Amino acid sequence: MEEDEGGTTILSSFDLNCIDFLDRIAAAGVTSFKIEGRMKTPYYVATVTNAYRRRIDGLSGGGDDPALLRRELDAVSHRAYASGFYFGGMKRHAPEDGQYLQTCRFAGVVKRLLPGGRARVELRNRIAAGDALEVLSPHSLVLRFAARDMTDTGGAPIDAAAVPMSLFDLAVPPGVRQGDMLRIRLEEQGFTCSSSGDVAN
After folding, report:
1. pLDDT band with cut points at 50, 70 and 90 for residue 84
2. Is the four-CA dihedral 66, 189, 182, 194 of positive or negative sign?
3. Is 6 exposed, middle or buried (0-12, 13-18, 19+ CB in 10 A)?
4. Longest Cα–Cα distance in the chain
5. Is 7 exposed, middle or buried (CB count within 10 Å of its CB: 0-12, 13-18, 19+)?
6. Alpha-carbon gap, residue 54 to 23, rounded angstroms
7. Phi, psi (degrees; rounded to nearest 5) at 133
8. What are the counts of helices (DSSP H) followed by strands (DSSP E) for the chain?
9. SS3 of 146, please?
10. Is 43 exposed, middle or buried (0-12, 13-18, 19+ CB in 10 A)?
11. In this predicted structure, what is the pLDDT of residue 54?
12. What is the pTM of this model?
């Protein structure tokens, strides 16, 4: 707790993000990192862990563009990011309104692959034919495809899947694996995204 002429600060209203200086932490001798996952969704934990894992793996050379990994961290629901006390006292940030931010909506989980380049998906939030989907996977970064050839599990064509936790099938590109998560980027030029709000994260 800190107290000064501006008042008393008990807890920061910012979320910690050290993706840009993880190399400096490792260089200081830190060999183990913990992702805080309590009270978080599986989608959050998968996204954040994947981003940090890729950053750590790339510290020895090459690896993913840090800008892409920052974009990954923006994909989950979070408060405004800060670097905490890593570089001394907490620097004064712009006023924080306490709002949570996110650039993507968790859409579904690939439950199993089907013959003919298709997959069975367990829905989390509405997916409509033509939606631009991104694959969250430890095996790829920013694999995208358009939702097409959607059917119910009996093979009947559908224009959209809208009931959370229901199953449906759709065509997927090579590289999609069982257990991968699907998401929709909420606002990006050149993509048509569903406008329905979050149902389940």
Report:
1. confident
2. positive
3. exposed
4. 66
5. exposed
6. 12
7. -105, 145
8. 3, 12
9. strand
10. buried
11. 94
12. 0.83
pLDDT band at 110 (very low <50, low <70, confident <90, very high): very high
Amino acid at 109: V
What confidence tens digit (pLDDT) does each residue in 156-198 have? Answer: 999 999 999 999 999 999 999 999 999 999 975 344 333 333 3
Report the relative pairing of strands 81-82 and 15-16 from DSSP bridges: parallel
User: pLDDT per residue over 28-66, tens digit each?
Assistant: 999 999 988 889 999 999 999 999 999 999 988 878 888
Sorted by where each starts, the structural domains of the chain and their CATH numbers stand as: 2-82 (no CATH), 104-185 (2.40.30.10)
| Per-residue tokens: 13 | 């209203």
**In sequence order, which residues have a C-beta less than 8 Å from that of residue 59 and are 6 or more positions away?**
22, 23, 26
The burial class, CB within 10 Å (0-12 / 13-18 / 19+), for 94 is exposed
How many angstroms separate the CA atoms of 190 and 15, rounded? 30
